[in-house]
Design a protein that fits this description.
The chain has about 300 residues and is mainly alpha-helical. The chain has helices at about 1-30, 35, 45-55, 60-75, 85-120, 125-140, 145-160, 175-200, 205-210, 215-245, 250-255, 260-270, 275-300, 305. It is a multi-pass membrane protein.
């Protein structure tokens, strides 16, 4: 297991440098001068512009800029914004909010999606199965902002069950409705993935063998069918962790949440390149660690992977 873990960690190194280089290139190769854009219609002196460019290493060759930025990233220095605010301070304020939102969304889509998918797969062709397929298809087809505004109006304004907007501290209780909205599409995909996997494993050879041995239906379903059906779902959940962290821009905008998504969106509008590249780099690291965890979970779910070596 340690050998496998070390191998996977080595494979993540080129992924990290490749992803961060592309991010840095796309942000800082955009047309226009971000320093000049800071002053708007005003015309600063060339000395002021040159001093700012030197402060942010914008006067150096592009590859040198990237290496200096990566070196600072490894030291925990995420740089400063063009307004002088440390990026790490922005991240410390925004990341916990989005992390709480992503955790609630992940729990909802995993628990509810797997339960509905398993029941639909065991009752393939029946009313519950058909209803689950229709509802999941509807959630996939409808844009997230439509679902958000609809639930906000029905559950927040009409019924008063949830707050319409989230306060600045964003406690767990106020993030429940935004988490449901954020997880709606992923919930639908997990339902369909689990349902298809369970229905396929129902007719597998190992299930027939377990049934022929006289095992109870609860053990066959709970151990053999359920465990093997989780493999594609775990893969999707691992990928979705990164999507939940980055894809919360729309949801955070609807509920006025000041998290990572909203901070990155504002940074893009203001041309704050250091904020964008540093925030996205952190998301890349989270995404890679989530996929590493998924690879390790494969060995737990499937003994064939564990003993293949």
């Amino acid at each position: 297991m340690l050998w496998y873990l070390g191998k996977r960690l080595l494979q993540l190194i080129p992924v990290f440098f490749g992803a961060t280089f592309l991010i840095y290139f796309m942000v800082f190769s955009l047309p226009g001068d971000p320093v000049a854009a800071l002053f708007g219609d005003r015309q600063p002196s060339p000395q002021v512009i040159e001093a700012i460019r030197q402060q942010y290493n914008l006067d150096k060759p592009f590859f040198v800029q990237y290496l200096l930025w990566v070196g600072g990233l490894f030291r925990g220095d995420l740089g400063t914004t063009f307004s002088g605010l440390p990026v790490s301070q922005q991240l410390a304020a925004a990341f916990p909010i989005t992390a709480r939102l992503a955790i609630l969304s992940l729990v909802f889509e995993a628990v509810a999606g797997i339960v509905v998918g398993v029941v639909a797969g065991l009752r393939k062709g029946k009313l519950f199965d058909a209803t689950a397929l229709v509802v999941s298809l509807l959630l996939i087809s409808v844009p997230t902002f439509v679902v958000g505004f609809l639930l906000q109006y029905v559950l927040g304004i009409n019924l008063g069950l949830f707050r319409v907007t989230v306060s600045g501290q964003a406690p767990w209780s106020e993030l429940v409705l935004p988490a449901i909205v954020l997880a709606s599409v992923s919930f639908a995909y997990i339902v369909r993935l689990t349902r298809a996997s369970v229905a396929e494993n129902m007719s597998a050879d190992f299930v027939r063998t377990a049934t022929a041995k006289g095992l109870s239906r609860r053990r066959v379903v709970g151990v053999h069918i359920f465990r093997n059906s989780l493999i594609p779902v775990v893969t999707y959940l691992g990928v979705d962790i990164g999507n939940l962290m980055v894809g919360a821009i729309v949801t955070e905008g609807i509920f006025n949440i000041h998290g990572v998504g909203g901070t990155v969106f504002q940074a893009v509008k203001l041309g704050e390149g250091p904020t964008v590249v540093s925030f996205v780099a952190v998301m890349v690291i989270i995404f890679m660690l989530a996929n590493l965890l998924v690879d390790l979970l494969y060995a737990v779910l499937d003994p064939r992977i564990r003993y293949a070596k």
